[in-house]
């Protein structure tokens, strides 16, 4: 169990490999909006292999409930006859049905006469809304007609549609959903506010989506993609992906499937976005660039280490190949932790590297011993001839204590 003082935010609960007790009490970074302190780390999560396919459904129907997840029973249909009836009726027609909480409403129990806003989503971005959905609506001609819609594409065709992140926080069903989903909700909201995109992305909570063992689980709208095996540290990557999705990026490693598609169609999607393809291509380029250059590192204790590094590789890979201290990279270089943190001093002149991305800058909020203007993540710094020349002219890559 992790004990947090009242002044600590939920974002301070981090899922990474355990480190020595002497590393736990460190000031992180005084000028960054991410957490400033940590009191301890939870046990590492043993991630399971994702299936890459959800049960085939034509669309996803979501009921917006006025009751927050902390008041949901383990089986929500037992408390909401409307949800139970809608689920049975529409699932027989190939429609997945679930419930969400968008922060509107403070009821602690369900009314005898239920009536909620409802929306149905298809994987190409098409959707239909029903503001006053009740028992009579279930068999209405309008909904039955809408369900005849035929998907035009496997992907969203109009990506400027409103974007939402639905996080499963159904803790009464399985504690992993709230233990991991709750902190992820807070981290997402903090990151959205920090990046000034609250007018473009909303975070909502969703009931049981299946696969507690893969928690935290999220559904992205309008694409209907489910991402799993997530922690709060993935918040920056999720937001960047939702704003500008690209194939073969690292966040796709968490892709579990897409609602509204058959298993064969989901297999087509996975074949197209599988990040290992992009990594293999990148590794091929590195393999072709056999030239090596000289780089200089300095340990926390002041020991200078001169190593030969392959052009095109990154500094985390260089550190592992040369057994340099403090470059752990527990996430495998996937920009999901800060354990490849290092320093690029601005003297004798700034290192010839690109500026950190928003994702890297957010992840640096978890770096122990952060230094403003110097801290970078090694997995994001490529070895170049220019970087080697910088080292020859007096530049040194600093390694942190931990």
In words, what does this structure look like?
It contains 9 helices and 14 strands. Helix content is 23%, strand content 18%. The protein folds into 2 domains: 59-277, Glutaredoxin (3-Layer(aba) Sandwich), CATH 3.40.30.10; 287-398, Ubiquitin-like (UB roll) (Roll), CATH 3.10.20.30. It is an alpha+beta fold and 402 residues long. The longest helix has 21 residues, at 175-195. It is elongated. Helix 3 packs across helix 4. Pfam families: Suc_Fer-like. InterPro entries: 2Fe-2S_ferredoxin-like_sf, Adrenodoxin-like, Aim32/Apd1-like, Beta-grasp_dom_sf, Thioredoxin-like_sf.
Q: Features of this protein?
A:
402 residues; alpha+beta; Glutaredoxin; Ubiquitin-like (UB roll); 2 domains; 9-stranded mixed sheet; 5-stranded mixed sheet; 9 helices; 14 strands; elongated; disordered N terminus; 2Fe-2S; Aim32/Apd1-like; 2Fe-2S ferredoxin-type domain-containing protein; metal-binding; iron-sulfur
Could you give the topology of this structure?
Elements: E1 59-64, H1 81-91, E2 95-101, E3 116-121, E4 127-133, H2 141-146, E5 163-168, H3 175-195, E6 201-206, E7 218-221, E8 225-227, H4 235-243, E9 255-258, H5 263-273, H6 275-288, E10 292-298, E11 304-310, H7 315-321, E12 341-344, H8 358-363, E13 375-377, H9 385-392, E14 397-398
Parallel strand pairs: 1-2, 5-6, 10-14
Antiparallel strand pairs: 1-3, 2-6, 3-4, 5-7, 7-8, 8-9, 10-11, 12-13, 12-14
